[in-house]
UniProtKB/TrEMBL annotation:
<dbReference type="GO" id="GO:0043165">
    <property type="term" value="P:Gram-negative-bacterium-type cell outer membrane assembly"/>
</dbReference>
<dbReference type="InterPro" id="IPR017689">
    <property type="entry name" value="BamD"/>
</dbReference>
<feature type="domain" description="Outer membrane lipoprotein BamD-like">
    <location>
        <begin position="41"/>
        <end position="234"/>
    </location>
</feature>
<dbReference type="Pfam" id="PF13525">
    <property type="entry name" value="YfiO"/>
</dbReference>
<keyword id="KW-0732">Signal</keyword>
<protein>
    <recommendedName>
        <fullName>Outer membrane protein assembly factor BamD</fullName>
    </recommendedName>
</protein>
<keyword id="KW-0998">Cell outer membrane</keyword>
<dbReference type="GO" id="GO:0051205">
    <property type="term" value="P:protein insertion into membrane"/>
</dbReference>
<keyword id="KW-0472">Membrane</keyword>
<dbReference type="InterPro" id="IPR011990">
    <property type="entry name" value="TPR-like_helical_dom_sf"/>
</dbReference>
<dbReference type="GO" id="GO:0009279">
    <property type="term" value="C:cell outer membrane"/>
</dbReference>
<comment type="similarity">
    <text>Belongs to the BamD family.</text>
</comment>
<dbReference type="InterPro" id="IPR039565">
    <property type="entry name" value="BamD-like"/>
</dbReference>
<comment type="subunit">
    <text>Part of the Bam complex.</text>
</comment>
<comment type="function">
    <text>Part of the outer membrane protein assembly complex, which is involved in assembly and insertion of beta-barrel proteins into the outer membrane.</text>
</comment>
Length: 283
């Protein structure tokens, strides 16, 4: 089991060694046939679920944990089983059911110690489905919202720092999508549409690693449109914030090759950005 996925609160109760010791001989006899589990206690079924999630089939583990909730509702074991069911579904990559179980935990036990973990699992159910930038980004937006829930509601939990990292990566993912579309338009000489996409990155995704390239692409697009003031201003922003990047070097070569400088000129949206950069307000 990945230590980064299940935290100390849940792990403290995750007695795999004890379960294996107690159930080594009889664990395999606990059947999934209808009515079979009614002969076992909540603790015995829970330990069977632990064995399955660690060494067997996580889908079977989710089943056993779910049966505890059905057979022993409102018990402490049902509460423990619900968070483990969410984890088991996630391990099985059954993200909708993992999300549903995590949300039920949050609905029923919002003040319990594993609530932060439930919110983190809910966020992961979106985040772990984020694929390449060419796909629809709805899941990315949902991941960002759920990760923000961990960061804001459980700032002192062990999942906060991991959520911040994943939030930044997902945020960069959205910016990368804008860049992909912008490059598409730029390649097809649809410069106005390209500018609109790169502007979104510069204005809304300033903290991502996509920003230096977005500024360089603005230099390219504005030069193609004959808007030299805007092109030079984009280059000036690169010079202030990203002078050591290859994008600055490429923009410098483009502008100076046309006898232009990397200075802020005119009165455009980029000029306003440049003034913020100079004052140190845009980072």
């Amino acid at each position: 089991m990945s230590g980064s996925l299940i935290g100390t609160g849940a792990r403290a109760r995750f007695g795999v060694v004890l379960a294996l010791t107690l159930l080594a001989g009889c664990g395999s006899t606990i059947s999934k046939t209808p009515g079979a589990l009614e002969a076992y206690s909540a603790e015995e079924i829970y330990k069977k679920g632990e064995i399955e999630v660690e060494t067997g089939d996580p889908a079977d583990a989710a089943y056993y944990f779910g049966e505890i909730e059905r057979l022993y509702p409102y018990s402490e074991w049902a509460q423990r089983a619900l968070i483990m069911q969410a984890y088991s579904y996630h391990k099985d990559r059954d993200y909708p059911n993992s999300r549903a179980a995590a949300q039920r935990y949050l609905d029923f036990y919002p003040a319990e110690s594993d609530a932060a973990y439930a919110q983190y699992l809910l966020a992961l159910s979106y985040y772990d489905q984020i694929d390449d930038v060419g796909r629809d980004q709805g899941l990315t937006f949902q991941a960002l919202q759920a990760l923000r829930g961990v960061i804001e509601q459980y700032p002192d939990s062990e999942y906060a720092s991991a959520s911040i990292l994943k939030f930044d990566l997902a945020f960069d993912h959205l910016a990368a999508k804008e860049m992909e579309v912008g490059r598409y338009y730029l390649k097809r000489k649809n410069y106005a549409s390209a500018v609109n996409r790169f502007r979104v990155v510069v204005e809304q995704f300033q903290t991502t690693q996509q920003t230096p390239e977005a500024l360089h692409r603005l230099v390219e697009a504005y030069l193609s449109l004959g808007l030299t003031d805007e092109a030079q201003t984009a280059g000036a922003i690169l010079g202030v914030n990203f002078p050591s990047t290859v994008w600055y070097q490429d923009s410098y070569a483009l502008l100076t090759g046309r006898g232009l400088s990397m200075d802020a000129r005119g009165d455009s949206w980029l000029t306003a950005i440049y003034r913020q950069v100079v004052r140190g307000e845009w980072l």
